[in-house]
Design goal:
Layout lengths: L1 H41 L2 H9 L6 H10 L16 H4 L2 H6 L16 H36 L4 H15 L2 H15 L15 H14 L1 H16 L2 H8 L4 H12 L1 H11 L8 H6 L5 H10 L3 H29 L1 H5 L1
Length: 337
């Protein structure tokens, strides 16, 4: 019976996962086509050629040669010069956009291999994003539990007001203020730059610290709202009636039962860690995927921009699927439904 139940549960999870994947395909396809259309409505291949060649002294011949060498000389959606299926496949939509579903992104408009760039730049992004996420969870949950412990006191009111104030401050203020204080005045860390290997921590410690501090306000309030809802439930009153201390109630019961929304909110973030942080990487000169996106926008390299938008969509959809699977795994009520 146990084996049959486990097999049935595995089949339920597999069918649930397969159904979510099938739902995600039209979403990805729609976003992919919409992104392609917006890019080429705003910037025709001729405009892209002028941007890459320089607006001065660009002849029609130079534009035509650039389009041929970068495979932008094809029709956008439908190729009347071809026959059969090639009418749809020998187009810019198929070769430049739908081909992204194979995760072979080809070359950028400047001639760089996009797959090689992504595989190289993802590691600096992860080196910032992973420690920042872990520290954010620990710090914000710790502060939230402290506010619950001192709930309905002047300490909690003051802390909540501080959280609101921290949320109201722009992320640029934390970055510029941190660079000025810790790098320029105290000279504890480099103001920007990056090195590989063990020396990378000199350049990562400040952006990680700023990432954690800038998220304390919103993170603490979010976890506080979760724990405040749990603290008023019947099982908490039962635990107190059994003689458990307030600290034991918080850590054994409130934190444990509040982990479901916390876990699911973290799971949806995990796939986006690969995309990097646009502001942090740009201001600190870290060669991650965030700065890669910014550099591509500045250079008007739309091949890279389209690729990053596609990857962002894929990771976001993947995060939603993982969140649903987390609910299925953690909450027995979802499994029963």
């Amino acid at each position: 019976m146990g084996g049959d139940g486990g097999t049935r549960g595995g089949l339920i999870v597999f069918s649930y996962f397969l159904r979510k994947i099938l739902y995600a395909i039209p979403v990805l396809l729609g976003v992919n086509i919409l992104t392609f259309s917006l890019f080429f409505v705003l910037n025709s291949p001729d405009d892209m050629a002028r941007a890459q060649l320089g607006n001065k002294y660009v002849t029609p011949t130079m534009i035509s040669q650039w389009k041929v060498s970068h495979q932008y000389d094809l029709p956008l959606y439908y190729n009347e010069t071809q026959t059969g299926l090639a009418k749809w496949t020998d187009t810019l939509l198929f070769k430049k956009s739908l081909a992204q579903f194979t995760f072979q992104f080809g070359n950028s408009d400047q001639g760089r291999n996009i797959n090689a760039d992504i595989s190289q730049r993802m590691w600096p992004s992860l080196a910032i994003a992973v420690p920042t996420l872990i520290l954010e969870i620990i710090v914000n949950i710790g502060f939230a539990l402290m506010l619950i412990f001192f709930r309905y006191t002047s300490f909690e009111l003051t802390a909540v007001l501080i959280c609101v104030a921290l949320m109201s401050i722009s992320g640029l203020f934390y970055i510029i203020g941190g660079q000025y204080l810790f790098a320029k005045v105290l000279k504890l860390v480099p103001i920007s730059g990056y090195e590989t290997g063990l020396d990378a921590w000199h350049f990562l410690i400040l952006p990680i610290m700023i990432g954690v501090i800038s998220g304390i306000g919103s993170g603490t309030r979010w976890y506080r709202s979760i724990f405040m809802e749990e603290i008023s439930k019947d099982y908490v009153r039962t635990a107190r009636a059994k003689g458990l201390s307030e600290v034991a109630v918080l850590f054994r019961h409130v934190l444990k039962n509040g982990m479901l929304p916390i876990l699911t909110s973290v799971v949806v973030i995990i796939p986006t860690l690969f995309m990097g942080s646009l502001l942090l990487e740009s201001f600190f000169g870290i060669p991650g995927l965030g700065s890669y996106m910014i550099d591509a926008i500045r250079a008007q390299d739309f091949a890279i921009v389209r690729t990053m938008v596609f990857l962002g969509t894929v990771f976001y959809v993947l995060g939603l699927i993982l969140t649903d699977l987390t609910y299925l795994w953690v909450d027995p009520r979802v499994r029963l439904e």
